[in-house]
Write a structure and sequence with these properties.
The protein is mainly alpha-helical. Helix content is 78%, strand content 0%.
Amino acid sequence: MQSVAAIELIAHRIVWSLLFLLGVIAFQKNFRELRPAFASRRTLGLNLLSSLLLATNWTVYVWAVNTGHVIESSLGYFLVPLVNVALGYLLLHERLRSLQWIAIAFAAVGVSFLLFGVGHFPWIALTLAGTWASYGLLKKHSALGSLAGLTVETLLLFPFAGIMLLWWNHTGQGALGRVDAWHHVLVLSVGVITAIPLLLFAYGAQRIRLTTLGLLQYLSPTAQFLIGLLVYHEAFDAGRFKAYSLIWCGLILYTADGFWAQRRRLLTGAGANRP
């Protein structure tokens, strides 16, 4: 869908996602779950902020993919776990273990190498990582469930998205009525394609071990990286390989630290339960 502007694709994603989500809520008869989002100005403001972060993340990602930056967009999601740890330290005053500090240091050196060694500022990756990690931080403190939360976020964005689509249709610049039948199908399906994976992720996150979930979050950026490298043949020279390798080393250390920390908790719990 490169022929459709990224901002228009996001507007379609918001509108059709909302319609799909409202249909799911109507089927479940759970509209009452949306009420807490509008209980106070603070709650409404936090939901608006999370919706803006989500929209920014979506827009940058779609623009990056459609302009040949698939590999760098994958780097953004590789960085998310480490940015989460950094935000936890800076904003929530969480204590970091030694390996977590080392993992963050590896990632910082890798990003610095991209900037000074390759001469490329990875703004796409940093924007994707920053917006998604910040969005996750807000969701951590949200009283809404996954379905209600995503519905409220798309509902708050709907007026802007709807007005833009109506204007583009009025001026003859929008995709609807201008592209062929196959592209109409693609454009109209972006809502379902967006909502279903997010809902499945939330459903699975409640039912599998946190360690397993942590490993699964690397599947998507790995697939993105391989698509950019092997399918679209994007540039990936020796300098970028060194920088990415440093970041991947940080992720390996971060994952290993998570395994060891969970194992210690399990052993401690088992010892405490012994007679």
